[in-house]
Amino acid sequence: MNELQQVLLIFAMIVIVGLYLLNKAKSKKHPADANQQQTSSQSKGDNSHDLNDLGEAHLPLSEKTQHRLHLDEDSQLEETVPDAQLGLSFGQEFEVHKTAKSQTKSEQVTLAEDRRKPQEIQIESIEEEADESSVAEADPEQETKKETVAVQPTADTKDQPDEKIFALIIMGSEDFVWPKVNQTLQGVGLLPSDSGIFVKNDTMGQELIRVANLLEPGTFPLEEPVNSDHKIAGLVLILTLPTSVSATSVMREMIMMARKISQRLNGRLYDVERHLIKESDLQSMRDAAAQYEADSQ
User: Could you give the domains of the chain?
Assistant: First the structure.
């Protein structure tokens, strides 16, 4: 046991000596690192000391340091200053700015007023010219209206010619039976009207040709269309110009209608004076309608 203890002690001593030698070798190889560690530790200590001294009162300055501070301030005040700044004091600078601003404002106001004055005058003159022009323009319109009003009656009288009436009479050797007359008239396109006669209308419902009873009062027994006791002495076809259709067209329509009715009732055509109608008389009626149409255009 004594031998083992001696061996262990010797081994421990060898290890301690080896570690010591290693530390010395490292310190020789890295001296700068050690210095940096020392400075860093010192700076950390100073910083911590400063932080701790933040709440403490400052020490009073000595007379020498105060004298140095006054000298530094005087040297800063004696720096070169521009001439423009030397001429005026602190209060005068603001007074000059104020007066300059007031002058510029007053000049702007006067300029604005001077600019407004001629504009107002121009507006008034323009309005006066517009009023005069409107009056001058209104007068010719009124005059033209008066002239048109004065001319219109004459134009209307020229455009609307006098009415002209044409008539054809259909009679037979004997009186016509009413039911046959009713059937014949409706067969040629005539319609019974509220006035008790038959009429031929245009597409708009306006009367073109009228057919009445030859005897007074000129009406037909429309309420008894199949009563054979009623006799009709004759028929009168009446055309009054102007109509909604041209005069020549409506005249041709009336002549064709009169011929159909006379053929179906075995009658003859007569004029107003109850003279037998000839073909030349029908042609003269056509010519009169054409002349009427020419005069109305």
Answer: 164-296 (3.30.1400.10)
